């Protein structure tokens, strides 16, 4: 008798589901699990005997087919290793020998045998979409098999063919509901009736074994050896070994049909009285062991488009953080954040890179400037070509470059001049200014978080007002020569509840008692450029992105309280949630500060909010042309007059105009 080994046929859905399970379920657990495998006979001529694995291999239960081809289900072991070294270290030869011993021990018992035992060892390199695996199916080798009779099933059955067809239809309907691991059933010789295994144990006389082979040509699958090994080692049927009757089904069967073409199926009568399992040097000899031990490699990159690969790779990096270190990381919440960056310069470019590293899919830039020759060396989204021919618009190029880095991102750029207090608006400029105002309002209202990254105080005022008006998270990040400042603005008054949020936190302007003015006027050359130490923007953007991601994991979001005592600060799995940070490169130190909201703030107070909502256009134009009006509207002027408060000193904490936080010291 000639035999042929299994050849695995693994659907791409299997590898896709394995990748998903590894990241979301298995994580670092590389223990043994089970797979549901199946064999079936195809209607066309095959060169191999195929063992099928698909997306359903990971299920606990069979997905029943009410029609279609009949499939024999079995369950095997599998182990997905964390490293290629541990994958390679597993001793598959020892596994085969130990499996053989367990099989022979079980064969001697009067119980339904497990003829189909196998193991799949896998190492999945998910960063490269490479899968290494070995699929080993232990199969005995048997000697001294005497073939008494072999004929076509059609010739053997003769007039009983119709009866057999009916019985076969019932059998496959029953068998397709089970995970059998046997590949055979038992029939009574006289009437071809199906016999339950327990019933067979009581009377083993005059039976025919019905064996489902997985190969439709002359050879038998090597799995038939395990069936023979069961017969010759089961003591209870030793008396029948000289004449074992077997019907071998080698044709495609279709569920819910009563007629089958059985042209390839055969009838055998075997004499197994002298048959033995082959042993060599105290080891059982395994069929096709060299072939089964051969490592195979699957490269899925060729099946995926490049954009999908990039998306999966980015997601994988973040998911690795989740199941290795941060089980409470809410990936969906992070990735669905819509972020508006006001400023596409040194800070905006690097912050955008950090945010896409967290998997954020929606980033919008606002910047009025164009790329100059000095920008590309410090602003990481631009290159020299962007600065030529007068320079391209920063916001538009930043969005374009972000898509080149990560094609799956949704990014837009707007070359928009932000209306600023102290920057006088003529009658000819009113219409354009209002258009900018309404566009900026629209952008703030449609995003979840706003980052203020511009290089002047007055350019941060209107976005701060609008963030308060629309109830959006707002962060200010500013650079000095060797210092940086990061502030998470207090929660909007529209959402503020003192019983829940405690003391409301200050915004960027809460420590000012004067309106922001035109700081661009009469600037010398050194003041016209943002002069900072080159590494500062990377530090500031890193701290601000991490603070943002940590904050959105807090149940209170931007309403999370703060304190001047670091030990009392709220925290998430990513760390504490300070109010604002001041970094100083000169001593390589970052200090944490805390400030309460000022009830007369020129940007976030209720008075400013009311004025904006009452008459937006009038309020805006008056604030731009006469910025001192903000002190009147907010109540600072009246407060100072009524209390006759004397201000002895207004101290700038570090003396830098761009990132000063002022404190009133009376």
TrEMBL record:
Residues 321-554 form the THIF-type NAD/FAD binding fold domain. Keywords: Autophagy, Cytoplasm, Protein transport, Transport, Ubl conjugation pathway. GO terms for cellular component: phagophore assembly site. It holds the Pfam family ATG7_N. One of its GO terms (molecular function) is Atg8 activating enzyme activity. The keyword Hydrolase does not apply. The keyword RNA-binding does not apply. Residues 1-304 form the Ubiquitin-like modifier-activating enzyme Atg7 N-terminal domain. InterPro entries: Atg7_N (IPR032197), ThiF/MoeB/HesA (IPR045886), ThiF_NAD_FAD-bd (IPR000594). It is found in: Cytoplasm; Preautophagosomal structure. GO terms for biological process: autophagosome assembly; autophagy of mitochondrion; cellular response to nitrogen starvation; piecemeal microautophagy of the nucleus; protein modification by small protein conjugation; protein transport. Homodimer. This is Ubiquitin-like modifier-activating enzyme ATG7.
């Amino acid at each position: 008798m000639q035999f042929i080994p299994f050849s695995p046929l693994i659907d791409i859905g299997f590898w896709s589901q394995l990748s998903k399970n590894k990241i979301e379920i298995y994580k670092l657990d590389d223990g043994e699990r089970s797979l549901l495998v199946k064999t079936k006979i195809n209607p066309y001529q095959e060169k191999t005997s195929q063992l099928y694995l698909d997306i359903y291999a990971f299920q606990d239960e069979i997905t029943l087919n009410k029609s279609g081809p009949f499939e024999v289900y079995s369950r095997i072991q599998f182990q997905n290793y964390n490293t290629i070294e541990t994958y390679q270290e597993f001793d598959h030869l020892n596994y085969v020998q130990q499996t053989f011993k367990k099989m022979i021990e079980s064969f001697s018992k009067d119980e339904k045998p497990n003829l189909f035992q196998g193991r799949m060892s896998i190492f999945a390199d998910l960063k490269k979409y490479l899968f290494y695996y070995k699929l080993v199916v232990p199969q005995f080798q048997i000697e001294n098999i005497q073939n008494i009779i072999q004929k076509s099933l059609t010739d053997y059955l003769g007039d009983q063919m119709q009866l057999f067809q009916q019985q076969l239809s019932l059998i496959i309907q029953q068998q397709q509901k089970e995970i059998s691991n046997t590949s055979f059933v038992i029939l009574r010789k006289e009437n071809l009736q199906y016999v339950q295994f327990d019933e067979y144990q009581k009377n083993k006389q005059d039976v025919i074994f019905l064996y489902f082979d997985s190969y439709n040509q002359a050879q038998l699958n090597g799995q038939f050896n395990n069936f023979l090994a069961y017969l010759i080692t089961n003591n209870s049927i030793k008396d029948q070994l000289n004449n074992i009757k077997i019907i071998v089904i080698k044709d495609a069967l279709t569920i819910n049909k009563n007629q089958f073409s059985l042209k390839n199926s055969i009838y055998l009568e075997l004499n197994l009285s002298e048959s033995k399992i082959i042993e060599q040097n105290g080891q059982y000899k395994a069929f096709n062991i060299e072939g089964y031990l051969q490592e195979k490699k699957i490269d899925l990159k060729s099946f995926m488009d490049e954009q999908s690969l990039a998306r999966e790779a980015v997601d994988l990096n973040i998911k690795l953080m989740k199941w290795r270190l941060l089980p409470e990381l809410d990936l969906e919440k992070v990735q669905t954040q819509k972020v508006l960056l006001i400023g596409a310069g040194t800070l905006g470019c690097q912050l955008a890179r950090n945010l896409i590293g967290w998997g954020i899919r929606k980033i919008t830039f606002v910047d009025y400037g164009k790329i100059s020759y000095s920008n590309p060396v410090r602003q990481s989204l631009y290159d020299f070509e962007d600065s030529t021919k007068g320079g391209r618009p920063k916001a538009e190029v930043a969005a374009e470059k972000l898509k080149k880095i990560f094609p799956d991102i949704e990014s837009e750029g707007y070359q928009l001049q932000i209306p600023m207090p102290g920057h006088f608006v003529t009658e000819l400029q009113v219409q354009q200014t209002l258009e900018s105002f309404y566009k900026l309002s629209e952008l703030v209202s449609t995003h979840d978080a706003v980052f203020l990254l511009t290089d002047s105080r007055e350019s941060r005022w209107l976005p701060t007002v609008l963030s308060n008006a629309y109830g959006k998270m707002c962060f200010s990040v500013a650079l000095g020569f060797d210092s940086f400042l990061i502030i998470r603005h207090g929660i909007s008054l529209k959402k503020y509840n003192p019983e829940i949020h405690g003391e409301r936190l200050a915004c960027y302007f809460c420590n000012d008692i004067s309106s922001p003015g035109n700081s661009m006027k009469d600037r010398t050359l050194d003041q016209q450029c943002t002069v900072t130490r080159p590494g500062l923007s990377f530090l500031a953007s890193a701290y601000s992105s991490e603070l943002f991601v940590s904050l959105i994991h807090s149940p209170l979001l931007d309403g999370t309280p703060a304190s001047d005592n670091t030990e009392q600060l709220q925290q998430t799995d990513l760390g504490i949630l300070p109010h604002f940070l001041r970094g100083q490169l000169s001593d390589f130190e970052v200090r944490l500060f805390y400030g309460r909201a000022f009830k007369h703030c020129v940007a976030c107070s209720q008075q400013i909010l009311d004025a904006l909502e009452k008459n937006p256009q009038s309020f805006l134009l008056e604030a731009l042309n006469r910025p001192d009006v903000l002190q009147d509207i907010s109540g600072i002027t009246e407060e100072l007059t009524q209390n006759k408060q004397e201000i002895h000193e207004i101290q700038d904490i570090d003396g830098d105009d761009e990132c000063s936080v002022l404190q009133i010291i009376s």
